[in-house]
Amino acid sequence: MLLRFISGIMVAFLSTFLCFVMLYFSKGNIAYANGLNSQNKEFVKRIEKNLGLDKPLLIQYKNWLFKAFRGDFGVSFLSGEKVLKIIKERFLNTLILSFSALSILFFLSIFLAFVEYHFKNSFIEKIITFITLNFFALPPLVIALIFIFIFSFFGNFLSIDDIEFKNDFFSRLKYLVFPILVLVLSHLALYLRIARNLIYECFDQIFIQNLYARALKQRDIDCLVLKYCLGSIVSYFGATALNFVMGTYIVENIFNFSGVGFLMIQSIIYKDFPVVLALIFLSVLFTTLLIFISDIISQILNPKLRKYSLV
User: Fold this and answer.
1) pLDDT under 50 in the chain at which residues?
2) pTM, two decimal places
3) Dihedral, CA atoms, 222, 227, 232, 238, nearest 10 degrees?
4) Residues with Cβ within 8 Å of residue 112, at least 6 apart in sequence
């Protein structure tokens, strides 16, 4: 696990370099951040010189990298505020959204997997598979647009203006419902398949079949199956953390949700690379930490998994 954590830090730095190369050659420019697309060339060059953007690619990245090693991610070109301060203000919103959706996905996947097992080859199993696969086939963007179309234009239940949270639970809940629904529906088929395969595999184990022979109650057998495979399910959830976090960023932009994903897209558009690189770096580190924690939890739940650990 230690090697995995170190490799995660290396991947984080490599990701920032690849991202910086793409930003460097992209067409956007911080000089157009005020909304005017007809700035004269002298003004654009003056802005780039003041921000050090006229220097070669490797020099710019080296300057950022040395500062990042000291924990200084610089200031935003757009707002002039410290990057860490901006990220800190929005991180909690993203954390609440992603953990709420992931928690619902975790429990719902396990519940539906047991339902599918006990109603194998029935109409209930087929309808669950049909619904989850249909939502999985649709990109999160399409699902979100369907929600916006139905609940915003017809019912006025959903606001698509910029979302600024107040410090009360119901204010947050109002704006969390639809982003969480989109995240859950778009990922449910994948996580359900993972939970289902592990639970089906566990029910086929000889020691579980012996429990049936001893006439143990179905509820007790279900608890033992869940206990046996819970560690592997947690581990798989952790392994897909990066994919889920990136999905959260996309959903934030669709709903104008004031999180770090919304901040990242706005920063990419105007090539505010101190913010983008810091977000890429911290996002990879965050997902590495999630994987690390999920590995520890899975090994606590199932000590047999320790032999597969690298360190």
Assistant:
1) 310-311
2) 0.78
3) 110
4) 128, 132, 188, 192, 195, 196
